[in-house]
Amino acid sequence: MRAEEREEIVRLPLLAACRPETADFLLRGAFVQRFPAHTNLTREGEKADFLYAVLSGSIELSAAYLDRETTIAVIGAPHTFIVAAVVLDRLYLQSARVMEPARILMLPSESVRQAMRGDAGFATAIAEEMANSYRNVAQELKNQKLRTSLERLANWLVHRDKETGGGHRFVLPYEKKILAARLGMAPEVLSRAFATLAQYDVHVDSATIIVKDWKALEKLAHPDPLIDDETI
Amino acid sequence: MRAEEREEIVRLPLLAACRPETADFLLRGAFVQRFPAHTNLTREGEKADFLYAVLSGSIELSAAYLDRETTIAVIGAPHTFIVAAVVLDRLYLQSARVMEPARILMLPSESVRQAMRGDAGFATAIAEEMANSYRNVAQELKNQKLRTSLERLANWLVHRDKETGGGHRFVLPYEKKILAARLGMAPEVLSRAFATLAQYDVHVDSATIIVKDWKALEKLAHPDPLIDDETI
DNA sequence: ACCGTGACTTGATAAATATCAAGTATCGGG
DNA sequence: CCCGATACTTGATATTTATCAAGTCACGGT
Questions:
Q1: Residues A95, A185: one domain?
Q2: Taking burial as the number of CB atoms within 10 A of a residue's CB, which of A5, A139, B29, B78 is the most buried?
Q3: Domain that includes residue A189, residue range
Q4: Which of A134, A146, A226 best probes binding to B when mutated, by most B CB atoms within 10 angstroms?
């Protein structure tokens, strides 16, 4: 592992609060690897061998049931994924696939558990990471149970616009097919939802979104910090 | 706090793995309180002042949006709730209401965070608690996104039957109205779903459920450990 | 014992969402 | 530059779910 890469890694929220010797211990068994798009990193049901952290690129987490499949979340740097399975030494509940070509840090799961037992700072960082993940998925559950598909799309657009600087013009970060799965609807429904949003002056040109009447969109969306704000 | 009550508390998964002095420290600021049914313990949006653990009784966690409301989960002993908000010192994302009269342990949230920083065993226990909660919500999200309402009910029955000893006969632990919200459907839909299950030899007499043809129900439900098994 | 409230059910209907099919557009590889 | 695969859109339709309304029933409080 190169020195500058090591620098980058110990700045991750996960490692920033642990003792130097814990970081040493963890990084001894760790490695960083680059993966091209579409690589499958984990499949749900497998044993949790590694904790993964995204250094760059993005990862799609998905789950399947019978012949159905859905996207649970899309993760980017500097976040981790499938930490819960590692902490509990259980099976992955989700599959992880590389979306944008990614650099991934992999920590052997047994080392992680051992480091937790020995370093309260690290264990706390893991707990905080888990708490964040918990809140994100709890918010997503509220999103699913309390909103219609049109409302979920409208809120996603409002949120994405803020995230990209509030220019009221941005490009979708991934395929509409994946966005549809992420929002919990069939691709055809997403297509029609975009068509409906034309009434609210939302213009869609392939992957580019232009929000001409911000107020109208926000009124439709009714964003709620307790569902949409990840840092509340 | 009585000695036997203290005994009971330090056996909670949360405290079982921490150092004696950490338990002392935590229990110094803690108290146990009995609450009658329907008491509101927290409201979503409030600051997280306490970590709650259920010693007996049960708690309903719910969330609202506009004029809608849903039940996120129902918690019993020896589980905790709203730990994530405490760990991160943020706002509660869910409201908690007493369902069955309950004895609740309350730990001041600042003490919890302080204890985590000082005791790796306790921080690890919190991380494990969070990991369990995370997996439960993630499973619930899969349940919502990948199944129809009839399938959710069928699986809930299968699961509940196993939980209560597999006698193929049990009593609903709470009102159908709440069950409907828990399963993500309108009460009328639940009513009709029960009616549909008559075809599968599921008999409903007010709150008593009798499953006459277990195989038929299980075939309809298609239970999946990665969605339904909390300990996988 | 009576009353009133609220849970539960059932019917009728509307709205939301999924599915199937067909056509167009787009994009990467040869 | 062309081809084939796949994403995306749109229409028609089916299924799922919600809503509104009315009636029954059970229960707690007076």
A1: no
A2: A139
A3: 147-228
A4: A134
